[in-house]
Every structure is written in C-alpha cells, then in structure tokens.
Design a protein that fits this description.
- By secondary structure, the chain is an all-alpha fold.
- The protein has one helix at 4-95.
- The protein is rod-shaped, with a radius of gyration of 41 Å.
Length: 96
C-alpha cells in the first residue's frame, strides 16, 4: 500500500513528465515554425525567380517578333527585287 508521501512523489514525477512533454511540444512547434518560415522564404525566392523568367521570356518573345518582322521585310525585298525582272521578262515575251 502506498503512503501519502509515495503518492505525492508519484504525482510530482508525473507532473515533471507532463512539463517535459509540454517543453518538447513547444520545441517541436518552434522547429515547425522555423521550417515554415524557411518554406515561405523559399517560395518567395522561387516566385522572384519565376518573375525574372517571365520578364526574360517576354524580352525573348519580343526579340523573336522583331526577328520575324525583319525576315518578312527581307523576304519582301527579295521578292520585289526578283519579281520586277521576272515581270519585265514576262511582258517582253508577250510583246514579241
């Protein structure tokens, strides 16, 4: 049979275990909070990188559009250059 003193000591031991569990719980919450903060920083960093990628992609897209327009102008010049002699040649054929 347990005495009052034994019961009290058991209560103190259990109370100390509860305190230890609470401290472990708080420590784990702090770790989770730290990891969550790192996660947020990483998401912000990835978002920044993605925004830079979008800006670069827009620049690249506009450069491709400019290049395409330049190629169209060059093709039109070639067409004009070669079509005039061809038209003249055709008109001379039909005159004779």
């Amino acid at each position: 049979m347990m005495t009052w003193f034994d019961t009290y000591n058991e209560y103190i031991k259990n109370f100390e275990k509860i305190i230890q569990l609470q401290q472990d719980y708080i420590r784990n919450l702090e770790r989770i909070s730290h990891l969550y903060n790192e996660f947020i920083k990483n998401v912000e960093r990835i978002n920044g990188i993605y925004n830079e990628f979008i800006v670069s992609y827009k620049k690249l897209s506009s450069l491709y559009e400019q290049q395409f327009q330049n190629m169209q102008r060059m093709n039109q010049r070639w067409l004009n250059l070669f079509s005039k002699p061809w038209e003249q040649n055709q008109s001379e054929k039909y005159k004779d």
